[in-house]
Amino acid sequence: LERRVAVSRGSEFVVVANRLPVDRTVGADGVPRWRRSPGGLVSAIAPVMRRRKGTWIGWTGAPDERLEPFGEDGMALHPITQTAREVELYYEGFSNATLWPLYHDVVAPPIYDRSMWDAYVQVNRRFAEAAAEVASEEGLVWVQDYQLQLVPRMLRELRPDLRIGFFLHIPFPPLELFWQLPWRRQILEGLLGADLVGFQLPGAAANFVRLCRRLLETRHVKQDVYWDDRIVRARAFPISVDVGELNDLVGRPDVQERAQEIRTDLGDATVLLGVDRLDYTKGITQRLQAFGELFEDGRLKPGQAVFVQIATPSRERVEQYQLLREEIEQQVGRINGEYGEIGFPVVHYLHSSYDRAELTALYLAADVMVVTPLRDGMNLVAKEYVACRKDLRGALVLSEFTGAAAELKRGAFQVNPYDIDGLKGTLLAALDAEPAEQARRMRTMRRRVIEHDVDRWAQDFLSELERPGVRPVREPVP
Ligand code: GDG
């Protein structure tokens, strides 16, 4: 594991993210190895990283681990240590029990705790110091996501020569919610250390600019914020999926066979599919409720339709996530207990993580993909489903509260997941859609996803960051 590579110092391109893009695994021979991690962020940036031969700064996921920089999967990796207490306070605490719910419409109550905040500052400083050490003169640093919002400012103080970009993968809340945060000023000033602050949607960028004006009394022209003798640009860059990788998977005979096998195992039933991290923002209970009620109403019969819900384990030490898991497990038990018959459970619930090939086989086997978040920055699952359906079959049910809805609304069956009756009607409409309608909708969505894949996203962000005229406005040398 401690294989060393050429020192990562002097990198022209540095990515800073909470997690390194690899997970530790043990091979069949018992030897520990690294493997590329699942998850939105990693699927998005790994290909770009490899092309640019950059350095990725992040945490391995193991508390108290100290590792030297190493190379894996064509990338130079620079590990950051987090103590067990920091993981609890910075990661599980401030990142995932404060910022995550606050930025997702407060769908769970955020915890405001001063020791969590202190740990957030401390760990952000460690990341900023590492980036300051690794980046070359006038290099480019791209900071990722809500766990590291203080890094841009800290890094600029250490290295004013750098060009700094920040991308927020989750929603940026309206001023009225952000205002709750006891450290609202520090977070905002942290972000303003960047030259370019990227969001999933134009509305999020607008929320940010409005907040700057109200909280810091900044001037701005459109989405250019004047701050500290510099111009900070707020822009939208909707993230997407690796269409090439998914195409390759869809073309693999073993993946197609596996899709057939899944269908055979499920009998003649129409297959509805959900794939999510087990997270309270994803609207899993709402979709299961709607599905269960369709049986209660007699609008669906056991054996006619089946719901496969993959819920990937996530943030298992955070209380809200433990509560949600119990709730979903009870709900699945109740629905199957009431409406299932021998040989025909109505919900298959899998609390487990799968490899990309298995996920692709599931996408190919699903007649209706059900994506019902209460709030989601983008939602890559929706785009992955579309990217996989070259056959123009299948229907996508998509919540209005996802970033993806802005791009896919013409082809998707849109829903408000809070409206259970509406959700029931839409599930049935998607189940009943004729092949010609499925194809028409799928074609529209595929056009968008294929043209705007993850490469385009990264290119758009980086070329905006590299655009001349965005360097810090310096005092003239006397
Ligand atoms: C955040 C934002 C934004 C899921 N289970 C497995 C697995 N996955 C993969 C999916 C997809 C990714 O994880 C999940 O991405 P999402 O976008 O759906 O959601 P978040 O994890 O909440 O991501 C989100 C995203 O960042 C990117 O900016 O879109 O709004 O919340 O790629 O396929 N992958 C594997 N095994 C699984 O079991 N290998």
Automatic annotation (TrEMBL):
Superkingdom of the organism of origin: Bacteria
GO cellular component: cytosol
Molecular function terms, GO-annotated: alpha,alpha-trehalose-phosphate synthase (UDP-forming) activity; trehalose-phosphatase activity
SUPFAM superfamilies noted in UniProt: UDP-Glycosyltransferase/glycogen phosphorylase (SSF53756)
GO term, biological process aspect, one: trehalose biosynthetic process
A Pfam family: Glyco_transf_20
CDD domains, sorted: GT20_TPS (cd03788)
Similarity comment text for this entry: Belongs to the glycosyltransferase 20 family.
Protein name: Trehalose-6-phosphate synthase
Source organism (scientific name): Actinomadura soli
